Amino acid sequence: MLRIAIQAKGRLNEKSMSLLSDAGISASGSNSRKLLARAEGLPVDLLFLRDDDIPQAVAMGVADVGIVGLNEVAESGEKVDVAMNLGFGACRISIAVPKSVDYDGVKWCVNKRIATSYPNILGKFLEERGVKAEIHRIAGSVEIAPAVGMADAIFDIVSSGGTLIQNGLKEVEQVFASQAVLIANSNLAAEKRDILSDLIFRFKSIISSRGMKYVLLNLPESALDDAVALLPGMKSPTVLPLAEKGWVSMHAVIAENELWNKIKALKKLGAEDILVLQLDNLIN
Ligand code: PRT
Ligand code: ZN
Q1: Position 54 pLDDT exceeds 80
Q2: Ligand 1 atom closest to the CA of 72, numbered from 1
């Protein structure tokens, strides 16, 4: 049995649950916010925690693995293995100052009061640059600290940047890049390691299929070389003869952001009957 800690509620909860569910792990009663839920599909159970508590829970072995932002792992300083990046929850932790400030590099921070929920990451960053500042740890609403006179600058999570703009702040140093990661206790028993590698295998196949579409089309055989050049596919596209002489069927995986341009080019080559299908897993 492998115990997986995930965020009980908050920004990472829904995506963590849907990744687990795509991997065949669905928790019964998880919506009732039970502390623990047994999942079906793999021998795992789920532990619902505040994200701040997940790195420590995994380091202590209360949970075997966890899904949490890399920012929380770094801030906690707990020794855990980062098993893989999960491709969601992307954000950065940045220093931001009031828009009117004439910021001229990190030395501006000397003797300034900086409000943050990430004092350890900030402390390390400033120390490495030989900058001494007053770091004020505050738990929430860090972005209002400069306006109310509590701080000269903030060090906080930025994603779209909208919150900074709303509060009259500008981002001046991007210090730490984060996303949701799968972390693991570094001394897992062999039986748990096996379940973990199964879990990683499933997560990888789900994540690599994201943003990809499976495309089937019919094509005059004479246009095959040009079409293959357009659709490199995994190794190369699959090509099957059609019952109608001179025609082939082609199957390929195309990144969603290139889909419409490629389809346009394929139609120019004479492609017909183009089917675009959802891709759930991509197993290499
Ligand atoms: O209750 P619990 O302690 O579990 O949750 P929490 O309130 O501490 O964390 P939560 O749910 O807000 O965030 C969980 C994790 O999501 C973070 O640790 C990050 O790894 C990740 N994440 C990704 C974010 C954001 N994007 C994000 N934009 N966490 C917070 N924000 C906040 C940020 O603090 C700021 O207030 O959103 C605002 C900035 O967003 P933009 O888009 O306006 O720049
Ligand atoms: Zn938290």
Answers
A1: yes
A2: 18
State the pLDDT at residue 26.
Answer: 83
CA distance linking residue 22 with residue 204, whole number of Å: 11
CA–CA separation, 20 vs 62, rounded Å? 19
Q: Are 253 and 234 in contact (CB under 8 A)?
A: yes
Q: Looking at residues 197-207, what average pLDDT do you find?
A: 95
Strand order in the sheet with 44-49: 26-27, 36-40, 44-49, 2-7, 65-69, 180-184, 81-85
Q: pTM (2 decimals)?
A: 0.88
Tokens of 58: 């995994």
Decide if pLDDT at 89 tops 90. Answer: yes
Q: Are strands 134-137 and 113-116 parallel, antiparallel or unpaired?
A: parallel
**How far, in Å, from the CA of 206 to the mean position of ligand 1?**
24
* Ligand 2 centroid, distance to 94 Cα (angstroms): 17
Phi then psi dihedrals of residue 265, to 5 deg:
-65, -40
User: Going by C-beta distance under 8 Å and a sequence separation of 6 or more, which residues neighbour residue 117?
Assistant: 75, 137, 138, 139, 140, 142, 156
Residue 234: CA count within 13 A, CB half-sphere: 14
CB neighbourhood size of 1 (10 A)? 11
